[in-house]
Amino acid sequence: MLYVLALVAVVVGVDVLFFRHHFWERLLVNVGIVLVFAAFYLRFLRVHERSRCNFNPK
Q1: Checking phi first, is residue 3 left (phi over 0); if not, alpha (psi -120 to 50) or beta?
Q2: pLDDT single digits (tens) 1-57
Q3: To 10 degrees, what angle do helices 23-40 and 2-18 make?
Q4: Which of the 8 DSSP states describes residue 47?
Q5: Domain range list for the chain
Q6: How far is CA 38 from CA 5, 17, 22, 42, 55, in A?
Q7: How far apart are CA 1 and CA 21, in angstroms?
Q8: How far is C-alpha 48 from the chain's CA centre?
């Protein structure tokens, strides 16, 4: 939940500070920010599938 709040804060902050009157640039930057957050989540924060199940190779 904190991760989503950080994403929203970054998107709104960038919108207000840099791209207030530029619709298409703001849209492209917002999509890029969401993609960066998604890639970071998938690479570092996601719980791996094997660690969630009881994997016993015996």
Answers
A1: alpha
A2: 899 999 999 999 999 999 999 999 999 999 999 999 999 999 988 876 555 555 566
A3: 150
A4: P
A5: 2-46
A6: 13, 23, 24, 6, 27
A7: 30
A8: 18
